[in-house]
Amino acid sequence: MTDRLRTVVDSVHTALSELFADTWPTPFAEACQYPLFTGGKRVRPALCFAMFDAITGSAGWPPSLVRVATSIELIHTYSLVHDDLPCLDDDNERRGRPTVHVHYDEGTALLVGDALLTEAFALLARQPLPAETIVALIQDLSNASGHLGMIGGQAADVGLDGPVETLDTLRRLHRLKTGALLTVSATMGARVAQADARQLALAQQFGESIGLAFQLADDVLDAEEDAGTDGPPSYVKFLGQEGTSKEAHRLMDTAIDIASQLPHPEHLIDLARFIVNRDH
Ligand code: GRG
After folding, report:
1. Can you give the residue range of the structural domain that contains 119?
2. Ligand 1: which of 6, 38, 83, 90 to mutate, judged by most atoms within 8 Å of the beta carbon?
3. Among the four residues 5, 44, 48, 154, which has the most C-beta atoms within 10 Å?
4. Predicted model pTM
């Protein structure tokens, strides 16, 4: 992990801790916190911060930006908790620890996911930003998380839209399931930075390229871990490990070209490289 990412992790950790100290002093809070503090990389908040930096060149992150980024991490965490449930992926372990439904039970995991999802929007709504920025952020995050975004992608992944037989279908699935939340992390950072229309469009394009690159890198890592086993639809099945890795690097280069059109792109470029070259 880079020093920069460590700072992101610490900032999000503090914001999440404050959230629970203020609002949920109950035993259920313990279950809600369990998946939030288990070593996630915080890539989505990092994208949000790096896009803010790229536009403003600011040396620090305002508290409202940290909480906006934290709201995205709440959505990400809820999606993992629900995805791990027996009715979806049925995973017993995440980040080397028992998943929420294994550590507690299925009902608790369902409610923890529901609580984190709901709190994400409550957190956004109470930030001291201009009202039109808050509304735009809520629209951004709900579109990226809902049936036109992450949930739509998850539905396709479990076969609700029919078999995934072509690279185009797989690309669409990934754009929705993983790419939408990564893309919106960039655009939400741009919104808090009060980006103009051109910068917002660049943030969106950067997010789309790096979002897909993230998933391709994930497919390569999964293929290395599960060599020889049958898994869900993945790029590696269509392009092989080398072809998938090459495509991830091509998308990374596209993202870097886009980032270079912003005034202060250094952290954004570093993050794009980390996303594609990470080892977990
Ligand atoms: C169940 C509502 C619902 C949605 C599920 C995103 C998702 C949709 C499921 C996750 C399944 C999965 C493992 C997808 C691969 C890409 C991905 C999101 C990996 C995990 O993200 P990281 O690497 O995780 O950012 P950490 O652990 O660092 O937070």
Report:
1. 3-277
2. 83
3. 48
4. 0.95
